[in-house]
């Protein structure tokens, strides 16, 4: 092969067909579920959406998400603690009734929120 020859590109047709089939499958699922969160539509009522709601409220109270009206973060440790405690109640009351993925998602969210709460609480008190 000389330097003037362009490099040969090898296309794996099986991979290409599989990717196309996956794309079509995802598009079909999106059409079947119009409430999947398009603009102006409500997301489906799922455990993940419920969890996301609590997490968002806790992050908002911890100042991680700015107030949509003012653009400024707010800090309410009392509200953040309440949201985190509510997730703890959800964890206790659903024990043994969640899928493995849902259990991991909830446990991970609680861990992250509790850790962030301690960091923010310490910083607001002038601690380390």
Gyration radius, to the nearest Å?
A: 23 Å
Q: Note the beta-strand portion.
A: under 5%
Q: Measure the end-to-end span.
A: 64 Å
Overall shape: it is: extended
**Total count of helical runs of at least 4 residues:** 4
Q: Stretches where pLDDT falls below 50 for ≥5 residues?
A: none
How many strand units?
0
Percent range for helical residues? 55-70%
Number of domains: 2
Structural class, please? mainly alpha
Averaged pLDDT, please? 83
Order of H and E elements: HHHH
> What characterizes the major β-sheet?
none
Could you write a compact summary of the structure shown?
By secondary structure, this protein is mainly alpha-helical. It is built from four helices and no strands.
Architecture overview:
By secondary structure, the protein is an all-alpha fold. The chain folds into two domains: 8-40, no CATH class; 47-124. The chain has helices at 13-32, 47-61, 77-93, 100-124. Helix 2 packs antiparallel against helix 3 (77-93) and helix 2 runs parallel beside helix 4. The protein is extended. The N and C termini lie far apart (64 Å).
Task: Give a topology summary.
Layout: H1 13-32, H2 47-61, H3 77-93, H4 100-124
For this entry, give a set of tags.
128 residues, mainly alpha, 2 domains, 4 helices
């Amino acid at each position: 092969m000389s330097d003037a020859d362009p490099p040969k590109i090898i296309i794996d047709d099986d991979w290409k067909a599989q990717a196309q089939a996956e794309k079509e499958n995802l598009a079909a699922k999106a059409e079947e579920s119009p409430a999947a969160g398009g603009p102006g539509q409500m997301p489906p009522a799922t455990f993940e959406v419920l969890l996301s709601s609590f997490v968002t409220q806790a992050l908002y109270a911890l100042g991680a998400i700015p107030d949509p009206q003012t653009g400024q973060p707010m800090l309410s440790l009392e509200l953040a603690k309440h949201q985190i405690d509510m997730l703890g109640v959800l964890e206790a009351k659903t024990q043994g009734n969640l899928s493995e993925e849902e259990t991991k998602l909830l446990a991970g969210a609680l861990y992250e929120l509790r850790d962030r709460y301690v960091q923010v609480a310490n910083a607001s008190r002038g601690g380390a």
